[in-house]
Structures are given as C-alpha cells and as structure tokens.
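re: ur question from yesterday

yeah so i grabbed the chain u mentioned. its 180 aa long if i counted rite. heres the sequnce exactly as i have it in my notes:
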Amino acid sequence: APTYQWQRNGANIPGATASTLTIVGATQANAGVYVVVITNAGGSVTSAPTTLTVLERGLLNLLSRVTVPANGSVGGSFTIEGGSKSILIRGIGPSLALPGALADPRLALLDAAGLTVATNDDWESNANSAAIASTGATLGSIPALGAGNKDAALLVSLAPGTYTAELAGAGGAGGLAQLE
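ran it thru and got these structure tokens back, copy pasting raw so excuse formatting
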C-alpha cells in the first residue's frame, strides 16, 4: 500500500499523511507551494507543485440600520487588528429606495483621538470613486452605487487601531451604515 507525505515549501507537514490534505480555516500562514510524496515498494514519486494563495478579506460585511436625529449624527466604533486593512464604509440612503431612507447621507471617519481621518458626501465626489464602485460591486452585499446616487462611501486603508464611523444627514430619516 502506498504512503503519503504532504509538504509545504519543501518541508514535511507533520501528520499530513493521508491521500488528501484538508486545511480548515486557512490563513495566510498556510499559503505556499504544496506537493505530496507518494511512496510504495517500487519507489516514490512527487506530485506536480500546487500553489495555495489565501486571500484574507477580514470583516466582510457589517450592517446597521439606524435613525439619524434631525441635524445630528450617529456613530459606531470598530477596531482593526493584525496589520493594516482596506475597508469600505458606506452611508446608504437613496439606494435603499425605502420610505424614510436618509436622502443625502454624509460619512466621517474618526480615529481614537477623535481626529477626522476621512469624510465623504456623495460617493462620486470621492477621489477614488472608481475603486469604491468596483469594490462595492465585487462584494455585492448591497446593490452597487449608481451614477448620480447621493449615498456616501469611503474606501480607506487603516492601520491597527480603533475608529468611529459617523453617519449624518439632515432630516432624521433612517439610514444604513455598512462596513465591508
């Protein structure tokens, strides 16, 4: 009967001696070039190498529907850990097409000291609006932003730390804050 030994980057993987290799909850630490060495009485053969790339997307989607007080704002805090992360923050109103949706949301992103990191009112006025549209379409959790839409959006790379996303807009209608 043949025996199997899986390797990653040229080193044996301890305990990986089955005919298949399953990695549950793969992280970037599991990325690399994998082969299996199969041995029997006639000798051994090594499989063709296969490269495993792990894309960690972190927090994929966090939604919160809120009511914005008239001429006020609401905020939610989040923490980035383990290195810098790109994050898409959307203040959604018009694209919801719901009665009472916030007509013209505005976003502000603040650091732990309360200093403004980024702001947006009308996502298309953002310098990286093409990247925002592409990222939103790729994630697909809420329909992509359309031309002329008054939703607010920020696509930023954030260092580890605690941040607050504030959603504001005149009128006190409902809005939806989304972290992707």
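noticed a couple things. Residues 56 and 117 are 24 Å apart (CA to CA). also The longest strand covers residues 32-40.
anyway ttyl
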